[in-house]
């Protein structure tokens, strides 16, 4: 009997919801949505790891953090790539994914609520 395929493992990478670079009026919404993210992935058939990053993290720190994980893909949150103060962080994150998880799919969400949709686009699970 064949072993069932393991669930794809997805890292959801973002700035902490209460970080100063996140607009204050969005912090509660983001915190609540992020708290639901692992359950949403589990319901959809994926493993999920939440990974917080900070603008002051170096490429070396980010790479080391990712390299020890076994991830099939990484969803880069809007707070990393969409907030102008975090442009350099976005560049560092992409480089760290390339170095630390060269096989991983790089995916993007538009809100914390649609992170699973990004995984489904690049790592679909057959029903």
Structure description:
- It is a single chain.
- The chain is globular and about 40 Å long.
- The two termini are 19 Å apart.
- It contains five helices and four strands; from the N terminus they run βαβαβααβα.
- It has a single domain (9-122), classed as Rossmann fold (3-Layer(aba) Sandwich), CATH 3.40.50.11460.
- Helix 2 packs across helix 4.
- With 127 residues, it is an alpha/beta fold.
- Helix 1 links the parallel strand 1 (9-14) and strand 2.
- Helix content is 42%, strand content 16%.
- It has helices at residues 27-44, 59-67, 78-81, 87-100, 115-122, and strands spanning 9-14, 47-52, 73-76, 105-108.
- Strands 2-1-3-4 form a four-stranded parallel sheet, sandwiched between helices.
Question: Main attributes?
Answer:
single chain, 127 residues, alpha/beta, Rossmann fold, 42% helix, globular
Brief overview, please?
The chain is α/β, with parallel strands linked by helices. α2 packs across α4.
Layout of helices and strands, plus pairs?
Layout: E1 9-14, H1 27-44, E2 47-52, H2 59-67, E3 73-76, H3 78-81, H4 87-100, E4 105-108, H5 115-122
Parallel strand pairs: 1-2, 1-3, 3-4
Number of helices: 5
Work out the radius of gyration: 14 Å
Low confidence ranges: none
Query: What is the straight-line distance between the termini?
Result: 19 Å
Overall 3D shape: globular
Structural class: alpha/beta
Which band does the percent of strand residues land in? 15-25%
Order of helices and strands: EHEHEHHEH
Q: Which strand order spans the largest sheet, edge to edge or round the barrel?
A: 2-1-3-4
Mean pLDDT: 93
The CATH class, by name, is Alpha Beta
Helix content: 40-55%
Number of domains: 1
Major sheet summary line: 4 strands, parallel
